[in-house]
Amino acid sequence: MPPTDASTDAGADPAPRPAYRSGTGTGADSQDTLDLRLPDELLALRTADTGTATPRAPAFPSTPAFPSIPAFPLREDLLDHVGDWGPAPTPAGVLHLVPVHVERDLPLVARWMNDPAVAAFWELSGPEQVTEQHLRTQLAGDGRSVPCLGVLDGTPMSYWEIYRADLDPLARHYPARPHDTGIHLLIGGVAHRGRGTGTVLLRAVSDLVLDRRPSCARVVAEPDLRNTPSVSAFLSAGFRFSAEVDLPGKRAALMVRDRTLRDLL
Questions:
Q1: Which residue, among 204, 260, 211, has the nearest Cα to 237 in the 3D structure?
Q2: Which residues pair with 162 in a beta bridge?
Q3: CA–CA separation, 146 and 80 (whole Å)
Q4: Phi-psi region of 217 (alpha: psi -120 to 50; beta: other; left: phi over 0)
């Protein structure tokens, strides 16, 4: 989740982590996920759905530059259907979060991961299979992390991971609250780096989270402390510095955007 980049403004967000990766990230995700019990109502839905077709997420927004493709089916509604959150108007343009479709998006995301500025923090450089495993691990999971493209005015230019921080190994390292939602970001389009775009998008996406997930009181992130541009971008986007936390492979700045403070910061 460079930046949020070499930055959120210059490149990428520090280590994506729906499942923690060692180092600032290794090529493949570990399976170190929290053994937390899903709510009874979700378990009931899974039981009731046995033997039937899996519900499909809403189709992607269609633009001339980015045609519609059916979204990967989300088996649980742990993030309130990210693909259905709708557009987010920003000073940089209209942003859509579009859930990743591996067959369509892998070449683009893998190319971004091989950008040296991004690779330094995400550590997913190398053959496409490295990025593919990272994406499929999330898409084949229980829905607690959703990889997305950030499509700005019809052009895919950033990669996001929206995840349930309270169900993530991150929750072992800070006083998590139910429905805390985490975000990771990398800006893949070089033309969008270093112009404050990361700050604009971080504010817009964290607003989307708070608007579309009424049960979520906080949006969190954990950029590497060494990544000063990323920490600065989060601060400018309305996050506050909460604590320093030791995570596998890095010392991170725990950044928090509170629902109660969203109009003040």
A1: 204
A2: 146, 183
A3: 11
A4: alpha
How far is residue 245's CA from residue 247's CA, in Å, rounded to a whole number?
A: 6
Paired tokens of 86: 């709708």
Angle at 225 between CA 255 and CA 265, to 5 degrees: 30
Nearest-angstrom CA–CA distance, 152 and 85: 15
Average pLDDT over residues 63-89: 70
Count of CB atoms situated within 10 Å of the CB of 256? 19
Distance CA 255, CA 231 (A): 8
The secondary structure of 102-143, three-state, reads: HHHHHHHHHHHHCCHHHHHHHCCCCCHHHHHHHHHHHHCCCC
Residue 163 phi/psi, 5-degree rounding, is -145, 155
User: pLDDT: is 199 or 230 the higher one?
Assistant: 199
CA gap 126, 139 in Å, rounded: 20
Helix %, strand %, coil % of the chain (to 5): 30, 25, 45
Q: Closest Cα to residue 184, out of 112, 116, 265, 246?
A: 112
Q: Does 214 have pLDDT greater than 60? A: yes
pTM more than 0.85: no
